[in-house]
Design a protein that fits this description.
The chain is an alpha+beta fold. The chain has a domain of 78 residues: Aspartate Aminotransferase, domain 1 (Alpha-Beta Complex), CATH 3.90.1150.10. It contains five helices and four strands. The chain has a four-stranded antiparallel sheet, covered by helices on one side. Strand 1 and strand 2 form a beta hairpin.
Length: 133
C-alpha cells in the first residue's frame, strides 16, 4: 500500500485527534481507498504478508546481532538501527548498490531505518551492508 501512498494508524482517540489536526483534508485519493478496501478483504494475502515480514525481520535482527549492530525492536515492517558517525556514509554507499534505506540520523543521531522486504531483498541488504561496514 505504500506505493499508492496509503497507510493507516491505530491508536487511542486522543492521539488520533492530534494527528487529525495536521492531516490534509484530501490526504487519500479515491484509487487508494478502493485498493485498500480490496486489500483488507484478502485475509490469505494479509496472513502471508504478516508471516513473511515477521520471518524477514527476525532474519535481519539475527544478522544485526551477528554483525554487532545495535537496533531497536519493532513490531512493524521496519527496523531502526544505529551505525554511529558513519550513518550518512553507509546510506550513500548502499544507495550506490541500489539498496535504499531511510536516514533518520537527523532525528536520532547515527540511526538509519530499513523497511523489511522479501527474504531475497533482505539478504541483498545484509550482503551490501556487510560490504560497506
Amino acid at each position: 500500500m505504500a506505493g499508492i501512498r496509503f497507510g493507516c494508524m491505530f491508536s487511542k482517540s486522543e492521539n488520533i485527534a492530534w494527528v487529525r489536526k495536521a492531516q490534509s483534508p484530501y490526504s487519500v485519493n479515491a484509487v487508494a481507498v478502493v485498493a485498500a478496501c480490496t486489500a483488507i478483504e484478502d485475509n490469505a494475502y494479509l496472513a502471508s504478508y504478516v508471516s513473511e515480514v515477521r520471518e524477514c525481520r527476525n532474519f535481519v535482527e539475527a544478522e544485526f546481532d551477528r554483525l554487532g549492530i545495535k537496533y531497536f525492536k519493532s513490531s512493524g515492517n521496519f527496523l531502526l538501527f544505529d551505525v554511529g558517525d558513519r550513518a550518512k556514509e553507509i546510506r550513500d554507499q548502499l544507495a550506490l548498490s541500489r539498496v535504499l534505506i531511510r536516514d533518520r540520523s537527523y532525528e536520532i543521531s547515527g540511526c538509519l531505518r530499513v523497511t523489511i522486504g522479501t527474504k531475497k531483498q533482505m539478504s541483498v541488504f545484509i550482503q551490501e551492508l556487510e560490504r560497506v561496514l
